[in-house]
Write the structure tokens for this entry.
Amino acid sequence: MNEFYQKDIISIKDFDKEKLEKIFASTDKIMQLNSVERREICKGNTLAYLFYEPSTRTRLSFDSAMASIGGNSLGISDITSSSAQKGESLADTVRIMSIYSDVLVLRHTLDGSSRFAAEISDKPVINAGSGTEEHPTQAIQDLFTIKKEKKKIDGLKIGIIGDLKYGRTVYSLLYGLGNYDVDVRLISPESLRVRSDSVYEIKKRLSYTESTDIEENIDELDVLYVTRIQKERFPDEEEYLKVKGSYVVGLDLLKKMKDDSIILHPLPRMNEISTDIDNTKNAKYFEQAEYGKHIRAALLGLILNKNGF
Ligand code: NCD
């Protein structure tokens, strides 16, 4: 039996290097199949999505991933049009949606929401973003992108810049990178450094340096992972205004970087990467979004097929 069969995906912390490499291998395999072969993988399966926060890529990539492997999707992308608006609990909503589907994809404002849903659901639950805590499938996609574009992960120097306090993709990426031998540099305004309650967990897995200066040793980085300032998570708008637009990655900065460095972003981008960068060979954020569809197809294929595919 394949080890991912009927398993939840709640935290990237549950994935060691071996598991990640198996998912990457399955993703490579799925990318080589033709569309007819691909559609056999989850023929007749249904994915249900339940999104309490806005999303473009994550929801649609799950949707298109499921369609590409022959399954279908249904769900709630705008919670204001569901019974949650009448006061229905997350527990009841999850229970009902798991009746209608084979796998559930949840995005919610609260940390711990996916773990809670997994305890209630009869069907496997995939965390598509839980508060400021984690976004594991994004991190698997980010690691896969690095591997594809740089041909390796071990030995790389990786800068992560922006909102390291509230950005859940940052936490999942850091935990995931902990499986590899990487040199990590965290760059953020003082007030947006990684949360002190997570520092222990991160330091258990990897060592990193911190800086507020984007230019410091920028010429050494192989990967620059840029994140959006998470405006909606600031308890106080004044605090947001102080850090808004702190960093903009533009052509002037790119010139100082290694010729073969890559720039990633989980998207959506506000103004932290100038659009001038988009047509350079270093910009890989759109490829990253495309890989996301394939890794999600592979994950669904593994979760829903006893013997894999
Ligand atoms: C991210 C998220 O929702 O955490 N988006 C995504 O899924 N690609 C990043 C963000 O919103 O800034």
About this structure: The pocket of N-carbamoyl-L-aspartate is lined by residues 57-58, 129, 135, 138, 168-169, 228, 266-267 (CB under 6 Å). The CA atoms of residues 12 and 176 lie 6 Å apart.
